[in-house]
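Appendix B. One record, verbatim.
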Amino acid sequence: MKTIGFFLTTSPGGGYTRNMHKTKTGFTIVELLIVIVVVAILATISVVAYNGIQQRARDITRTQAIAQIQKALEVYLVEYGRYPAHIGVGTNKPAGFSGTWGDGFSHSVDTAGNWMKNLKNTGIVGDLPVDPINNNSYYFTYYASPAAGYGACKEPFYVLAVRYESIANIPAHSRSLSCTGEGVNFTTSTDGNRAVFSNIKTPGI
């Protein structure tokens, strides 16, 4: 940075003389380094905040998607007296995929288009949502019991499993289920960021 200034001095004859002088100032290396560090910190904070906002938005989308699926399942129950059967993903899955509770359950990454197919084929609803990322790490899982239920759970029930990106965004009505008894042991549980949703109001013991 360069500045120009002037000052007045008295002359021998009693007048004033204006003297011009130039001063040069600039940033030191330390000051430049401080500025660079501050900018880097602010940039990092901005990226972290943006990523957090994006994660929260996707988790909100997951909650809304599950609510939409649950409403459609209840309409199906009224029409048919049970929930639509799930179609196991089997071999119709992406490379490296290892589904929640095994390949016998329905997963939203099904490459054959079988995700909630038995529900969609009724015409009750159109396409149902999938996870906003929908890959080997983040996907939806669906299971439906027989009409008579399982074990201590004497009513037809369904289970929807979802993996959230932040535990803080999991809704309070997510639950663990246990339908044991009469030779049947059907148990689900939350695991880390995974949330479980079901129609069962009082899980069997």
